[in-house]
Structures are given as structure tokens and as C-alpha cells.
Description:
Elements: H1 16-68, H2 72-80, E1 85-92, E2 97-101, H3 112-118, E3 125-129, E4 132-140, E5 146-154, H4 156-203, H5 210-215, H6 221-248, H7 258-270, E6 275-283, H8 285-322, E7 331-335, E8 340-346, H9 350-363, E9 368-370, E10 373-375, E11 378-386, H10 393-408, E12 414-417, H11 420-442, E13 445-454, E14 460-471, E15 475-477, H12 479-489, H13 492-513, E16 518-523, H14 525-528, H15 533-543, E17 551-556, H16 557-562, H17 564-577, E18 580-586, H18 593-596, E19 603-606, H19 608-613, H20 618-634, E20 637-640, H21 646-654, E21 659-660, H22 671-707
Helix pairs in contact: 1-2, 1-4, 4-6, 8-9, 10-11, 11-12, 13-15, 15-17
Amino acid sequence: MVETGVAERGGWRSGLAARFTALTGLLLVALAGAVVACVSFETRRDAAERRVVELARDVQAAAEALGRGDEVHAVLNALSARSHALYVTLDTRGGETLVALAPAAPPPEVTRDALTETSGDGPAAVTVADGAAHAAKTVALSGGGEATLAVGVSLTDADGAAAAAASRGLFAALAVLLVGLPAFALIARRTFSPLRGLAQAISRVDGASAEVDRAALRRDEIGDLARAHLTMTREAFRNVAALRRAAFDDPLTRLLNRDGLNRRLSEALQVGQGVALLKIEVGGLERVATGLGPAGADAAVHGAADRVREAAAEWTRRAHAIHALGDDLSVSVARIGEAEFALLAHGAGEAAAEELARLTLAAFEAPLRLDEHRVGLSPAIGVAFAPLHGDRAEALMRSAGAALAAARLARGPAVRIAGAELNDRAYSRLRIEQELRRALVENELEVHYQPQLALGGGRVIGAEALVRWRHPLRGLIAPGEFVPVAEETGLVEPLGRFVLARASRQAAAWATMGIPIRVAVNVSPLQFRNPRFSEAALQIIREAGADPSRIELEITESAAMADPSHAARELAPLRSAGVRIAIDDFGTGYSNFAALTQLPFDVLKIDRSFVRDALVTPGARVVVEAVLGLARNLDVETVAEGVETEEQRAFVTAGGCTFGQGYLFGRPMPGEAFEAWYANRLGAELRAVAAEAQGQLWGRHAAARAVIPPSSGFAQPAAS
């Protein structure tokens, strides 16, 4: 987290104002020291220069007095009486000392040339060294002759003056610092206070601060910084909002997406809130995408999202009206898939969740209007509760998904509540999916063949290819257990190609063996939706070496009627190549008879449920009779599936059904077993034909004997 103040980082001493004040104080102290040093130096230099000037003037006056004949000792005593005098000497030109007074320090050596220049009116030769000033001058004595007058004085009074000046300067500097630094610190603190406001604003979530707003009104660099911060904050919040929408919102409907729903669900579960999760799959949206294109699909998704929202809003209004679930009730609406939505009801129990599901179903009762089209949508809903069906987001989503899968099997508007049984079933389906992928690779799948017979005469005319899974641990698995999983997971495409290829190779082999039958292969609706289905199917048949006329493709009624134009477009090249087309499970869907007459097909297959119930249910009998009548009018053949009794065979045969298929004739069996069964069946047929021919021969022989007159040797029978 960003630190929010100077005090939190170590007090005001570490603040910018304090640092700037301290630096200014140091600079002032350094400046004051320099000024004091300069003043002290100038003061000492001035005092020393005054002392030197006075010394030169006094020596000049003494030389003049000695030249006038004044008494030597009096003149020299006057010089030595001067303050700070170090010595006074009068030496002859030969170096003999005439007078030496106050010899506190020896006079320095003076060159003869320098002394020569001082004779007469020339100034005294003055030197300054070791804190003292020394003057020497040639003096003309009144009694005749010349002597050298030397005088030395101390310059300590100049040092004292310098020290006094330094003391006065330091005192003045201290006074300035004591008064000026607090004032400067206050000014600096007020100057830099907007920066503290900026720091605090940056650490806030929204970046707002009244101090920053005030600072933005300034026309200096701090104002520029404050305005830049406000601009950056606005841009950052726009970017964060855009990123949040991209990460957690569905771009089409602006509902929560899957990540957003998981985030909100996790937050609710972390605080121990009870929630109900409804996963909704809206059936029919894929039809809109196929029929109306992307624009129509988007409009349909918008319409479905609006209906889910309306159901959630209505449920919330009712719940608040009766105060059943508290004032903090809310419902989150999400789109979690192409045709999947979710409702997350906070604080909802089982009864409330069921009410929400019922309102959702009711919201889809009326058709969805898309321009001039009206589309019926059918929701399937899976419901799970926390913590009953999961105390984590992942577990609750999995439970709701299992319930949705169970509701989807109802093939219509339905609601299912999650439970251990559904979770186990979902896990089992997941295992089947994983193992089925392996089975396709490791050749664990087999194709069995169920005979199809002509009801008039019992001749074997074909066989339906049915896939079986020989699991290495579970043994033979029926297709009803794994084919639905393949359809849900996209494995039905490779599964369908496998069955068609295996059946085509078997048909080619049987033709070589002299078994003149056709092989019927089921086509999954998902497989049939492929825009290149006919091309791929013909390629598989031809690569297997089969005669296309020996292959019959069974297209379900629902797949054919879902998109009649696509069905006609894909079936035409197959039929032209010689492949027979059968409409499977006829009577179980909602056929458009006008579209049906435009489809190229050869066979109508009557679903086994109608054959089974025809002898006990009048409605089923009517359907079978209607299908058989339709087939006669369309001049196509018919196959009755699921014939298991003689009564059922007699019924469909009497109705004019062409072929029969069911346990009465034979169960699905592997190719080798089918060949043996076919050979036995063919032998039985041959024996029956031979027996019938022999019977006819004996009959003709008996008739011939009846017309031959008896010989005279035989007695005639008595008249009756």
C-alpha cells in the first residue's frame, strides 16, 4: 500500500519542508561564516595598515627631530612610549648601537640599498612580519654623521579588532537565524503542503482531495503538478473501468461474464453468505445463428439476456414486497457461454430459488420477436445451493452444471436441483469422455450389424451398423451410455467417421464374398450440420472401396427438418452417387411435409416406440398407419424398427411396411457372427425353397396319377 503521510514515514524531520529549511539554514550559516571571516580579515587589515602608517609617520617625525638637534633620548623615549612598541634603536653606520630602548624583539636586517633610499626626505623602510611592523630610516645627526633609526611595534591590536568584529558578526548571524529560520520553515511548510495533499490523494482509491483541487488553481509548478495528477487520475480511472469491463463483463450484453460471476460468487462464499446459483441454457439460439446469421444471433442473445434480467428483477420485487429475504437481497445476472446464462441469488433458499427458476421459465413462454420472425426459446435450468452443494465457487458451479446437464436431457423447458446423484453422473460422463477419446485412438470401438429383412418373404436385404465399445475393464458398453456424451463433447464427428469407414469396408468385403446386402449407417445431427458432410462421406465410402449403392445413410427427422435447404443440398450429391437415404426416427419430430417432399430420400424408418405401442395404444397405431400411408403416396420404402413379436410383424406387414428390423429377426452382432448368421439363414431359405419345390413336385405327380385311367386288371372302387 502507498504510504499516506510524512508522519507515517518518520515525522516532520523527514519532510521536504524540514529538509529544505535545514539546507537553507546550513547555507545561511555558511554564508554568515564567510561574511564574518571577510569582515574580520578586512578589520585586521585596516587596523594593521593604520598602525603601519602611524609607525612610518612617527619614525619620520623622530628623524626630523634628531636632525634639528633635539635631545636623542627624549626623542627615542617618546617613540618607545607608544603603545605596542617592541623596540627602538639608533645605530651608527658602523653598526655601533648608540641607544636601544624596549628591546622586546630584535630588529630585522635591512639592506644597505633600502637604507640608502630612506636618507634625507625619503620615507622609512617598513616591513611587516610575524605580527609586528618594523620601520628603519637613515638619520642625519645634528652633531654630524649618520645613524640608522629602527622602530618595531606589535600588531596585536589589529587581531583584537578582527576578533571583536568577528564576534559582532557571529552574534548578528545567530540573531538572524533564530528569527529567520522559523519564519522560513513556516513559509516552506505552507509552500509544500499541496505536495502532501497530492501524496495523500495518490494513496486514495479515488485519487480525490480538496487540497489537490485547491493546488490545481495555482499558477506555479505545484499547480502544474496538481493538474497533471488530476488528469492522470481521470485517465487511470477510465482505463481501470475499461479493463474491469473487459475482464469481468460480457462485451455483447454487458452482463457479468464467467470470471465476473466467479469473482462475485467467491466474495459471497468467503463471508459465509448463503446463495443460490442458477445455470440457464437457452435452447434455440443456435437455430437463430444458423438461420439469421451473426446479426440475428446477437439480437437473439440480447433478447434472451433481457428476459433473464426481467425474471431476476421481478423476483427481487416480489421478495422485497413480502420481506422474505431481507433488505440486502440482490441478484447478479451473467452470461457464461454462447447460449448459457447464470443467476446468483444472494440469501436465497430452496423455495426462493425454485420461484426464481419458475419466473425464468415463464419469461421464455412467449416467442422472441426478431424483426418479422418469431423464435421459440426453451430454457433448461440447473440449480445449486451454497453451502449444501458446494462451499467454493468451483464446486458450486460444478454442481449447478451437473443439474443443468440433467435438465437438458428433458429436451424442453425444465428445472433440476443439484444433488450427489447428479454430481456422480456428471463425473461419470467426464470419465466416459476421457476414456472415449482414448478408445478412438486405441481401437476399442467395434461395429455390430443388425439384420433388416423383407417382410414379404423374409429375405435378408441389409443390416444396420451399430457402434459398440469394448472397454478393457467394463466390457461391452452400450451406445446409449457413450453416444450422448460424444454428442455433447464434439466427439461424435470422429465417432461417426469411424463407423462409416468401418461399415463401408465391411460392405465392400461382403460384396466380394457374394453377400448382396446394403449397410445402413446412422448420421448424428451434429455430424450432418457440417457444410461439407456429403463430400466427406463420399470420400470415406470410396476410400473403403465400397459401392455407394451398398451404403444407406440414416438422417434423423429432426436433423433433416432443422434446415431443409441444407439437408437437400447435402443429400443430393449422395443420392446422385447411388447412396440410399433414410429418414430415421420418423414421427418423433415435427416434420414440415412440404419440405419433406423436396428432400431426396428412399426410406422412412418408423421409430421403435410406435411399433412397440401400436398394438396397445390407439395413438401409436394411428401414427404407424399414417406413416405407412405417407410412404405409399411418396413411393418410398419403409423400415419398422424394434419388431420383437410375431404380432408386431403381422401388424406392420398388414399395413404395407416394406422391411423389418428387430430382435425377432436378429440381434446386433459382429461382422463374423453376422456372416455365420447370414449363411445359416441362407441355408434355411434354400432348404425351405427345396422343400417347397419338392412338395410342388409331389403334388403334380399325384395330380398326374389321378387323370391316368386304371388298367382292366384293377378293381374299380365301389360307388359311394
